[in-house]
Amino acid sequence: MSVLEIKDLHVSVETDQGTKQILRGVDLSINEGEIHAIMGPNGSGKSTLAYTIAGHPKYHVESGSILLDGAQVLDMTVDERARAGLFLAMQYPVEIPGVTVTNFLRTAKTAIDGEAPAIRTWIKDVRESMTNLRMDKSFAERNVNEGFSGGEKKRNEILQLELLKPRFAVLDETDSGLDVDALKIVSEGVNRAKANTGLGVLLITHYTRILRYIKPDFVHVFVNGRVAEQGGSELADRLEDEGYDRYLAAPNVG
Amino acid sequence: MTAASAPAQTDKTSTPGALTTPGQHGIKEHSDGRFGFVPVQTRSDRFASVNVADFGEVTGREAVWKLSPVARFTDLTAGDLDGSAYEVQATDAPGVSVEWVDRADPRIGTAGTPEERASANAWTGFEKALAITITGEEAKEITLARADLGDASRAAHTIIEAKPFSQATVILANTGRARLTENVEIILGESANLTVVTLQEWEDTAVHLASHFGSVGRDARLKHIVISLGGSIVRVNPSVQLAGSGSDTELLGLYFADAGQHLEQQVYVNHVGPHSRSRVTYKGALQGQGARTVWVGDVLIGRTATGTDSYEQNRNLVLTEGTRADSVPNLEIETGDILGAGHASATGRFDDEQLFYLQARGIPEDEARRLVVRGFLSEIVQQVGSAALEERLQLAIEAELRGTEGQ
Fold first, then answer.
1. Dihedral of alpha carbons B11, B15, B19, B25, sign
2. Is B397 inside a domain boundary?
């Protein structure tokens, strides 16, 4: 049974105005096969948590730890974390000119598995996943994210999730900017990955909309760099009705 | 400020065909103490001569030399040169002849004339010219390899003539030692389709200055590719005259400068014939202390070149600190009746967000860097059109990239 544990995590970033404290003691524990939704208002630190788990150099961990089955994730480089079984689906995936999706997927799969995938089954797996995500065959020969629409980029993220088969995935606002059809397709992909591999999911979202298609086992509300409240999926229903106002000391204008 | 209303008689740039309103173009004499000095304004007005004595000593202040380390090759601009025939390995192809011809060959001088002293010195100094003559409409490929030109300062002259309706790819492959200044004339008859690839994989100490002059006939198509990877100083300047109606040229370049390397290319496309088309795309990568690249791209669309379509671009990828990339696009248009004319230039650092994205998919940092650079340069490699050469170039780029590891 795999487990991802985040303990008393404090994280800051450097800004033009100096060091800014963002996470102020986050505790979370995710078992394999569980779906945890992280919700919260803008600026509460949800994306910072995602990027800190993945190891983006912009974020400085001041104290605390992230353990994957007891191994200290914070001591690993970005690529070591991915090879250890962590995956981040990005909110804004970057373009890689001149690198085709096919080449990129094979390179990543080879890096993660430590050996090149068997060609015949690999091509079949890629085709099948692309069909499931309603991605046209021509995607394979396009350059990674170059000229992709917002929805295409998100589907490409989920394609990687399905093919690379991580143990834990962080989905950073994967629902943002998606129309309802794309949202359903992307959600199916996440549910499929969970069913096939026992994936544990940290689903970061501002809205409750995606939770109609991906049912969370736990909901954590982030406010001001901390978990302010947690509960089961009924908490999401309450947030849908009430919004985040009751967690904020001052009335939330705008 | 130069007033447009200044008296016309102070205009000293009244060469035939000059603009009738020079004051509006800022090319009349200024009153700011520059003593009447007016640099050459139109690209085709530059001084040209085949005789080295007609050029002054190279100081490094000249427009054509100001971005080059001229002190490191005075032997090539001012010294006596060995102009004898050298050893060259040529592959066989049907309809292609390779021979040494003497200076009286009527093709010599038909594609262009030197515009600077190194080129003129080579012209003055060569004894025999290597002539490649292409006939036959079926596609074919020929490689001419120079494996070691030695340490002596040398002049060379090459003629590549594609007869009307002929089709071929000519690969000029350069390795080993060299201190060389040379001219290459490329002559395309009507409807000829020629690809010329010049590949510089010299030894680390080599110095190579080359001027390529292309003359493209009616409905002919020249694809010219400069690939500079090895050598201390490599300067390859292709200059193509789109002489015939409907003539077409694609000028591509790929360069990868390591520490201390100077790789330069000054490209010039002269649209003379109507409905001519040109595309210029040069891409380069720089890594290591003192890695230096220069790209100058001049496009001139002459008065007679109506209905032309042109675009030039240069992209540089800076991989480490301590490098310098100069990129200077110039576009000059003398007719309003064109289909299109554009230029672009961008020099940027390695994108850390791309690196993060690839690493977040498990790809180690060095491999992620290689993937990005390979992708950046592959746009040029994919257009070479020779599968064997494309594969060889990918391997050469891999070797260059391995040079970054551990830095």
1. negative
2. no
Query: What's the total number of domains in chain B?
Result: 1
Q: What is the pLDDT of residue B184?
A: 98
Chain A residues touching B360 at Cβ < 8 A: 54-55, 78-79, 81-82, 87-88, 90
Q: Where are the domains of chain A?
A: 3-91+168-247
**B372: chain A residues, CB-CB within 8 Å:** 96, 98-99
**Closest to B85 in 3D by CA, of B71, B104, B101:** B101
pLDDT in tens, B171-222: 999 999 999 999 999 999 999 999 999 999 999 999 999 999 999 999 999 9
Q: In angstroms, rounded to a whole number, what is the distance separating the alpha carbons of residues A202 and A225? A: 16
Determine the Cα–Cα distance for residues A150 and A182; give it in Å rounded to an integer: 10
Nearest Cα residue to A9 out of A57, A45, A58: A45
Task: For tokens 């010049």, name the residue.
Answer: B198
Q: Is B371 inside a domain boundary?
A: no
Residue linked to tokens 């003398």: B334
CB B89 within 8 A of CB B174: no
R_g of chain B, CA atoms, integer Å: 22
Six token digits for residue A154: 């998100």
Q: How far apart are CA A79 and CA B362, in angstroms?
A: 4
CB B290 within 8 A of CB B305: no
Task: Identify the H or E element spanning A24.
Answer: strand A18-31
CATH 3.40.50.150 applies to domain A3-91+168-247? no
Closest by Cβ to B363, choosing from A95, A111, A143: A111
In chain B the first and final C-alpha atoms are separated, in Å, by 51
Instruction: Please give the full DSSP string across B325-378, using - where no structure is assigned.
Output: EEEEEEEEE--S--SEEEEEEEEEE--HHHHHHHHTTT--HHHHHHHHHHHHHH
In a domain, B346, yes or no: yes
Q: Which two tokens mark A156? A: 């490409």
What 3-state DSSP class applies to A122? helix
pLDDT by residue (tens digit) across B314-368?
Answer: 999 998 899 999 999 999 999 989 999 999 999 988 788 999 999 999 999 989 9
Residues 23-62 of A with CB under 8 A from B: 54-57
Q: For B255-311, how does the pLDDT look when each residue is reduced to its tens digit (9 = 90+)?
A: 999 999 999 999 999 999 999 999 999 999 999 999 999 999 999 999 999 999 999
Is the Cβ pair B360, A82 closer than 8 Å?
yes
Cβ-count burial B321-354 (b if 16+ within 10 Å, e if not): eebbbbbebebbbbeeebeebeeebebeebeeeb
Give B141 to chain A, closest Cα distance, Å: 27
Task: Domain of residue B133: give its range.
Answer: 48-351
> Could you tell me the pLDDT band of residue B370, with boundaries at 50, 70 and 90?
confident
> CA B290, CA B260: separation in Å to the nearest integer?
5
Burial, A16: exposed, middle or buried (Cβ in 10 Å; 0-12, 13-18, 19+)? exposed
| Closest alpha carbon to B63 in B405, B274, B296 | B296
Name the one residue in this structure whose structure tokens are 């109606």. B245
